[in-house]
Design goal:
106 residues, Alpha-Beta Plaits, three-stranded antiparallel beta sheet, 3 strands, 38% helix, HMA domain-containing protein
């Protein structure tokens, strides 16, 4: 099952090379130039996450903004990816039965 998410990465310059870097990573479903210095990437959170994409872009010479608001946004996106991945891995209760011990009252 693919659990996709789309994120925008602000870069000084978005060109074919930046799109190629993003598309070369496992789990990336699509990458495109969204205009105004923004790279739009759709990826499967079961295979990759925001921080991995961000670090790959930086390693290849595409650093994004580093201000306080951007660091907050980066942390928020990474938290969302980790939370969604944890929800995918969670095993639900079977057949609408509560887990053992849930029906005991004190």
């Amino acid at each position: 099952m693919v659990e996709s998410v789309s994120r925008g990465f602000r870069l000084r310059e978005v060109n074919d090379s930046a799109i190629g870097v993003a598309q070369s990573l496992p789990g990336v479903l699509a990458a495109r130039n969204a205009g105004a210095g923004k790279l739009k990437v759709t990826y499967d959170i079961a295979e990759t996450d925001y921080r991995t994409l961000q670090e790959a872009l930086r390693r290849h010479g595409y650093p994004g903004p580093t201000g306080r608001l951007q660091r907050l946004r980066d942390s928020w996106y990474q938290f969302q990816d980790e939370n969604r991945r944890a929800n995918l891995e969670h095993k639900p209760a079977c057949c609408s039965k509560p887990p053992p011990g849930a029906s005991r009252r004190k």
